[in-house]
Specification:
elongated, 7 helices, two-stranded antiparallel sheet, Isy1_sf
């Protein structure tokens, strides 16, 4: 007798559940119908270009985004959908549905902006996205691996570019040093310099010409024992690069103190 009562109770409970489900669906359908009536249409358009009413577009977007959220939440909840429970094919199908829905949403958003006179939204990315448990599909793991390798390759390329840029900067500095050296040599052997040298000719005192530490573009010239001595070009370049390193080091130290 008790078993029979339990069976009846179970049947009644299932019937009530079905009725509640049907009632819920009916209420939702009735609300949607009333909303369509308010918008002055019988059914929602499937093509965004088929309507010029921004309110219709907004309502379609509302429905799509709600649908997207519901489907995405199922992929995020392993109790509802998972690879272990439902298999890869089911998860892949659900993920594909979300990607298709995402493209449609972007298309309708573009139409909404057109009707509102706003700037166009960014075109939807053609790269497939993976949501929830779909991230554990084999193809998703392959995509992650490719992106990681691509990022590493980009980092290597950036390093090569930076290294090449640094080398180019050094070469530029050396070429610049050669130009300065040639100019200063010309200045030394100019008539004005001859006049200055003639004033100290025979002197045993070493005279530095423009040799202040703060000026990297300097060259030493002096008369000693009636002989003119100047540094060679390689020595000049070496002094110039040493001065450049010193200035950079000072800037780095100042930056550290400021931080």
């Amino acid at each position: 007798m008790e078993d029979r009562l339990k069976e009846i109770e179970g049947t009644l409970a299932r019937t009530a559940e079905r009725k509640n489900t049907m009632l819920y669906k009916y209420e939702k359908a009735k609300q949607a119908e009333d909303r369509l009536s308010e918008l002055g249409i019988k059914k929602l358009p499937t093509n965004p270009n088929d309507t010029n009413d921004v309110n219709v577009v907004k309502y379609v977007l509302y429905q799509m985004k709600r649908d997207f959220g519901d489907k995405r939440s199922k992929l995020l909840d392993p109790k509802q959908i998972s690879i272990e429970k439902d298999g890869e094919e089911v998860v892949r199908l659900r993920n594909n549905e979300l990607n298709s829905l995402l493209i449609k949403i972007k298309t309708w958003e573009k139409r909404q902006n057109e009707l509102l006179g706003r700037d166009a939204v960014v075109a939807p990315s053609k790269k497939k996205q993976y949501f929830g448990c779909a991230k554990y599909l084999p193809e998703a793991a392959a995509v992650v691996k490719r992106e990681r390798e691509s990022d590493e390759s980009d980092n290597i390329s950036d390093s090569e570019i930076s290294s090449s840029s640094s080398e180019g900067s050094v070469k530029h500095e050396l070429n610049h040093a050669s130009d300065i050296y040639a100019r200063l040599i010309n200045e030394i052997f100019s008539s004005s310099t001859d006049e200055k040298l003639s004033q100290i000719e025979g002197s045993q005192t070493v005279t530095e010409v423009d040799s202040t530490p703060r000026n990297p573009h300097f060259i030493l010239s002096y008369v000693k024992n009636n002989a003119l001595a100047i540094p060679d070009e390689e020595t000049f370049k070496s002094r110039l690069m040493d001065e450049r390193r010193r200035v950079l080091k000072e800037k780095i130290e100042l930056a550290k103190k400021a931080a």
